Each structure stands twice: as C-alpha cells, then as structure tokens.
Amino acid sequence: MAAEFDIETLKFDDAGLIPAIAQQHDTGEVLMMAWMNRESLKATLTTKQVTYWSRSRQELWRKGATSGHMQTLKSLRIDCDRDCILMLIDQIGAACHTMRRHCFYTDVTNGNEVELISPMEP
Amino acid sequence: MAAEFDIETLKFDDAGLIPAIAQQHDTGEVLMMAWMNRESLKATLTTKQVTYWSRSRQELWRKGATSGHMQTLKSLRIDCDRDCILMLIDQIGAACHTMRRHCFYTDVTNGNEVELISPMEP
C-alpha cells in the first residue's frame, strides 16, 4: 500500500529549508550534508540530479553544474519526523569543494584534529 | 600533525545547535540525524555515549537513557564547513523512536511513500 508523497507534509524550517544527507549508494560513505527548499527537492526528484539550495548564494545549486561533480539520485528517503532527508546517490568525483571525496574528512574523536583523506588528483 | 580540537571553531546556528548524523560504524547504515549544542557535544566526546540536545524538550538527551537504545561513539568527524557532525557509532537496538532500526524508513523516490522496514520486536 503506497500513499502519494506530498511535499507539504515535510517539515521545513523557518527559512523554508530541510537538511539533506548524501550517501554513496554502493559503498555507504556519507559524502556531505546540505540544505534543500521545496523547489530544489522537486528538481531533485524530477530530474534525478541532486539539487540543493545554496544558503550563501541564495540560489538553486545543482550539484556539479560547474565542477562536473554531479550526484545522480538513486533513492530519496525521509525520516520519522519528516524533517530530514537521506539520499542514496551516485557521486561523480569529489563531493567536497576541497576536492576530497567527502566532506567529513576531519576526525576530532580524541581531542585532536586528524585529517583522514587528501584532495583527489584533478 | 594534529591540532587540538577547539569546539568554538564549529559553526553553531542561531539557536546554538549543530546537526549530527549517526551512522552505524560497521554496516554504514545512516541511522538518524539529530541536533547537538556545545554541552551535548562535550558530553558525547567525554563519555563516548552519544548525547543530543532535544529541541522539543529543551534538555540534554542521552540517547537510550530511558529506552536502553544507547549509542556508543566510535569516531566523531566534522565537515569542511565545520557546521555538521558525522558520528560513527554502535547502536543498541532501534535508533528510531518508532522501534525501527533507523529513522529513514520511508522512501519517496517515485512519487509514492513506501515503508522500507518494520518496527523491531520488543
């Protein structure tokens, strides 16, 4: 039994945004977290090309539009509270603007910052 | 070369919070996303028992304190923008308050809501 998905049932914050986590679909790596508004979420679902909302530029941000590091949507999931999105995606190249595969490359578990991965070759 | 981690270098939002993603350390499953303030992050790093900030109750929320579904921290990472946390953890039982293993059990990729997993047996 499947109910039709209604974007208005999601809980967007006061700025009209919802956090979206991108996970590489086959390896399980968590690549990045960014924000979506209604328009970017609709674009992502329609085109299967992941599109965020850039809070700094205040504009739609189709991931990889300039860098070529696009994200193709495989599956989009929402959480129990309907206030967070998890996307399984296929990432081309680096998810991170630092040219690293993912953004979570700094470990701080034991009181020190340790860099886990280096930037990819261009 | 490891620099000492200073919590004040993180970017907390206007409410003093930062999003924290919990990922099962050995399977790679993304279990949930919740929020931390400085105090909960410090408690998490010190005790290795994951502690969030409950926005609804406005109090520290040591995950599993009442349910027994605790999360033991294995590794805590921050992203390039220093405004999001990824934790590799070991989850006892259900991460979700619905008694499901994880919170992202609703798939909406193709226009319909599809429930991916059922609640665990008590």
From TrEMBL, chains A, B:
Its cofactor is Zn(2+); Mg(2+). It comes from Paramylibacter kogurei. It is found in: Cytoplasm. Pathway: Amino-acid biosynthesis; L-histidine biosynthesis; L-histidine from 5-phospho-alpha-D-ribose 1-diphosphate: step 2/9; Amino-acid biosynthesis; L-histidine biosynthesis; L-histidine from 5-phospho-alpha-D-ribose 1-diphosphate: step 3/9. PANTHER family: HISTIDINE BIOSYNTHESIS BIFUNCTIONAL PROTEIN, PHOSPHORIBOSYL-AMP CYCLOHYDROLASE. Keywords: Amino-acid biosynthesis, Cytoplasm, Histidine biosynthesis, Hydrolase, Magnesium, Metal-binding, Zinc. Mg(2+) binds at residues 79, 81, 83. Catalyzes the hydrolysis of the adenine ring of phosphoribosyl-AMP. It comes from the Bacteria. Zn(2+) binds at residues 80, 96, 103. GO terms for molecular function: magnesium ion binding; phosphoribosyl-AMP cyclohydrolase activity; phosphoribosyl-ATP diphosphatase activity; zinc ion binding. It catalyses: 1-(5-phospho-beta-D-ribosyl)-5'-AMP + H2O = 1-(5-phospho-beta-D-ribosyl)-5-[(5-phospho-beta-D-ribosylamino)methylideneamino]imidazole-4-carboxamide; 1-(5-phospho-beta-D-ribosyl)-ATP + H2O = 1-(5-phospho-beta-D-ribosyl)-5'-AMP + diphosphate + H(+). Pfam families: PRA-CH (PF01502). Homodimer. One of its GO terms (cellular component) is cytoplasm. Its EC number is 3.5.4.19. GO terms for biological process: L-histidine biosynthetic process. This is Phosphoribosyl-AMP cyclohydrolase. The gene is hisI. Binds 1 zinc ion per subunit. Binds 1 Mg(2+) ion per subunit. In the N-terminal section; belongs to the PRA-CH family. Residues 32-105 form the Phosphoribosyl-AMP cyclohydrolase domain.
